[in-house]
Write a structure and sequence with these properties.
The chain has 312 residues and is an alpha/beta fold. It has a single domain, classed as Ribonuclease Z/Hydroxyacylglutathione hydrolase-like (Metallo-beta-lactamase, Chain A). It is 30% helix and 28% strand. The protein contains ten helices and 15 strands. The strands form three sheets. Strands 9-10-11-12-13-14-15 form a seven-stranded mixed beta sheet. The protein starts with a helix and ends in a 7-residue tail after the last strand. Bound molecules: zinc ion (2 copies). The site of one zinc ion has 7 residues, from loops.
């Protein structure tokens, strides 16, 4: 599946990197960077899958990467994107912005991986945003790597700044815009993810694209409000065919924590995104394609079954 995507990926990323829009300004020309790149770094779930990393999304705008979630394997996907998709912004030490939707392991296992990878070659700290509890998780990473940190900073290894393994942690206090650099804004909004509080979805607006990333959520009115008319809606989903075959206790759990395909079709009909990308696809015994087929049965807009390293 991934090999088939390679050709498409290469052509889109090459196009993105070489196209410059020439704008006439006061009689001269100014080169403006090409469009925002949206790359899926992980479309998986806690269920092990050789083709899918844990949750991860990259948005690249004006030479900066904005990462959403850090599920297991997503750092390796970022390295793949750097090497095969001309995405220098995703080289681990170049990443400065990470936004975590919630603290489930399939969204955080690569958090320390991202912060620690080649940290002694960083020029700036990683800035991480996420729910309450993120600082405690970060302190856990420092403790886990304390031996490595002591060895690298206490011996003869050249290290310019011995504090760059550290992360600037920003725990989100309330819904609203949590990042704004004048060109890119990131808005956090609370979603309903079973018993885990808080859990956030994110709305990202760049100079040329609006994107909503659901994180993990059951049907959310808040998300419907935020996603109306966005260019890209990237939403988690659970196949109804797969869900129906589960034992009652698991059905009840998933009903409270995730979005059934019929509910996602409803969300898409209400929000009318430019296109809908399915990610974090729980399907259990049913084929993964059932998630797309079921949504398409109730929604006539464009639906894409997301795969790791797909680019939009
Ligand atoms: Zn979750
Ligand atoms: Zn999850």
């Amino acid at each position: 599946m991934q090999k088939q995507n390679m050709g498409m990926r290469f052509s889109i990323s090459t196009l993105n990197s070489v196209i410059l829009l020439m704008l006439s300004v006061a009689g001269g020309y100014v080169a403006v960077e090409a469009q925002t790149r949206v790359i899926l770094l992980g479309t998986g779930t806690p269920v092990p899958d050789e083709e899918r990393s844990g949750s991860g999304l990259a948005i690249i705008s004006n030479g900066e990467a904005y990462l959403f979630d850090a599920g297991g394997g997503m750092v390796q996907r970022a390295i793949e994107a750097w090497q095969t998709m001309d995405a220098e912004e995703l080289y681990p030490t170049n990443v400065k912005h990470l936004f975590i939707s919630h603290l489930h392991s399939d969204h955080t296992l690569d958090y320390s991986e991202l912060a620690a990878t080649f940290w002694w070659r960083r020029t700036e700290r990683l800035n991480a945003y996420g729910p309450e509890g993120l600082q405690e998780m970060t302190d856990g990473y420092y403790a886990m790597q304390s031996t490595d940190i002591a060895l690298r900073t206490g011996g003869n290894q050249p290290v310019k700044d011995p504090t760059l393994y550290k992360v600037n942690v920003n725990e989100i206090a309330e819904d609203g815009i949590i990042f704004d650099n004048g060109a890119v804004t990131v808005e956090a909004f609370s979603v309903s993810h079973g018993s885990i509080h808080p859990a956030y979805g994110y709305k990202i607006v760049t100079p040329d694209k609006s994107i909503v990333f659901s994180g993990d959520t059951s049907y959310s009115e808040k998300l419907v409000e935020k996603a109306k008319g966005v260019d890209i809606l990237i939403h988690e989903v659970i196949s109804e065919e797969g869900w129906k075959a589960l034992p009652p206790d698991w059905q009840a759990y998933h009903r409270s924590a995730h979005t059934l395909t019929s509910e996602l079709a409803d969300i898409a009909n209400k929000t009318k995104p430019g296109f809908l990308v399915l990610t974090h696809i729980l399907h259990y015994g049913a084929p993964i394609e059932s998630a797309k087929t079921e949504v398409e049965a109730l929604y006539s807009g464009k639906v894409i079954l997301g795969n790791d390293l797909d680019e939009f």
